[in-house]
Design goal:
This protein is mostly helical and 473 residues long. 73% of the residues lie in helices and 4% in strands. It comes from Rhodanobacter lindaniclasticus.
């Protein structure tokens, strides 16, 4: 089963088993991407079907993110009490139920309710996957395995947008009836049932995190997992690894929010850094591209079919650059990639703001003149490239590994909750900002990209190659 020729200082191997179980856990990221992006192709149809204004459609699109914040908040507590694997199973059940409920919703409040339920499942999965992967992966390749979470997210986004485009094309439009008397936009939601079921089945077969087992006093079980997952067969190496884990977890009380507090700053500095990373990841506006892009391109003169095609192409670009990030994160490091990403996003968002300032006409007649439309398309995809190679995967890698062992799950839950709230703020306000002017909206996101660059240079520390047991607050 071994798939590498080298070990690290503790005799840990990167086995095929650890890669496969990391991939299974990261499927939660696929559902994260799928469930949050699938509404992209349904926005206009939902707005027309329920007669919603800009504010109402903004809430309908973004309400799942409030559920995600709740799920992320409680995920750490659930994971510490019941284990990482059982918590992933709970997320799978919620996602199956929400996909079916959203597709069959009869009123807008019904749709909002089921999207909230799905959001809770997504929030739980978003916290547990990076935590679990970081806790089973050897330090030498932890960055690459941690990046699988983001790869799964962008693959989920791609699958959602591709299925949206195919379903809308098959029906002749998102609002048109497709099968069983249901319009295509309902099938867009129902399509999420299948990956949620697959996720639930796969996580039944992954072992519990050795760090959670040690925290529960199950040393023999933790030893077996380390032997199988990391191919550690040396008794001395196993004893040292278990001792390191036990020492890092040693505490007189169970993990709780109080552990994150500091007298001087309210929270430990490392927790503030985690929250800031999460907020900046969203405040650069990336999810506007993946939640509203079909509507956005349609609004500036592209046909519905062309808008779907552009959105799918953008998601393909996102997948490809995430693969590049996975190849680079353990070579270049986390901090340099974030610096490159922030600088690139600031420039490309600025170009997009300029492009939309050149728009002519108004309302349904709004369009980008001449070559400006192509410049906007290139800038939008370049922006996705810079995000996908940096802030997309690297933030999840950092959140999974930067916190000390005894507070990791709880601190990650707080940081992920902040991320979902920031995502909600950006996503729910975009329709209103767009009505004010796309130049203002993208100019605002460009300003946040500049601030993110300053933050990384001043506050973020490199974690490449550092053992989790050596992370400090």
């Amino acid at each position: 089963m071994s798939s590498t020729s080298a070990t690290d200082g503790l005799g840990q191997h990167a086995t095929l088993r650890v890669i496969l179980i990391s991939a299974a856990a990261a499927l939660g990221g696929f559902l994260f991407g799928f469930d949050t992006a699938v509404i992209n192709g349904a926005v206009d149809a939902i707005r027309a079907h329920f007669g919603l204004n800009a504010g109402e459609i903004g809430i309908t699109v973004s309400c799942a993110l409030l559920g995600s914040a709740v799920g992320a908040w409680y995920a750490g507590m659930l994971a510490n009490r019941f284990g990482r694997v059982r918590t992933m199973q709970v997320a799978a059940v919620l996602l199956v139920a929400a996909a079916a409920g959203s597709g069959l919703a009869m009123a807008v409040w019904d749709l909002v309710l089921w999207r909230l339920v799905g959001g809770i499942g997504v929030g739980v999965a978003s916290v547990i996957a990076p935590t679990y992967i970081a806790e089973v992966a050897p330090a030498r390749i932890r960055g690459r395995l941690g990046s699988m979470q983001q790869l799964a997210i962008v693959l989920g986004i791609f699958a959602a947008l591709l299925s949206d485009a195919w379903l809308a094309g098959a029906a002749g439009g998102a609002a048109e009836v497709l099968w069983l008397g249901l319009p295509a936009w309902r099938w867009m939601f129902l399509a999420a049932v299948t990956p949620a079921l697959i996720y639930g089945l796969l996580v039944l077969g992954v072992p519990e995190s050795p760090r959670h087992l040690v925290a529960k006093g199950r040393m023999a079980d933790a030893r077996v997992v380390l032997q199988k997952v990391l191919s550690m067969h040396s008794a001395a190496a196993l004893d040292k690894k278990l001792g390191d884990i036990e020492a890092s977890l040693r505490s007189e009380h169970k993990p709780r929010l109080r552990d994150l507090c500091s007298k001087g700053t309210g929270l430990l500095p490392v927790v503030w850094i985690g929250i800031a990373l999460s907020v900046f990841q969203q405040f650069v506006g990336i999810n506007v591209i993946f939640y509203y892009s079909a509507t956005l391109w349609h609004s500036v003169g592209f046909s519905e079919a062309d808008s779907f095609t552009i959105t799918v192409v953008t998601s393909i670009v996102n997948v490809l650059v995430t693969l590049v990030a996975i190849a680079l994160v353990d070579k270049i490091g986390r901090k340099p990639l974030l610096v490159i990403g922030s600088a690139g996003m600031a420039i490309t968002l600025g170009v997009m703001a300029w492009c939309f300032s050149q728009a002519v006409g108004s309302g349904a007649e709004l369009s980008l003149p001449g070559a400006v439309g192509m410049v906007a398309l290139v800038a939008a995809n370049a922006y996705v490239v810079f995000f996908g190679v940096s802030w997309g995967p690297v933030v999840w890698v950092l959140l999974g590994e930067m916190f000390p062992n005894r507070i990791r799950a709880t601190a990650l839950a707080v940081a992920a909750s902040a991320q979902w709230l920031a995502n909600f703020a950006i996503t729910s306000t975009f329709p209103a900002l767009a009505e004010m002017g796309l130049t203002f909206a993208y100019g605002l996101y460009a300003a946040f990209a500049v601030l993110s660059l300053v933050f990384v240079l001043r506050a973020v520390r490199e974690t490449k190659g550092v053992e989790l047991e050596d992370m400090h607050a």
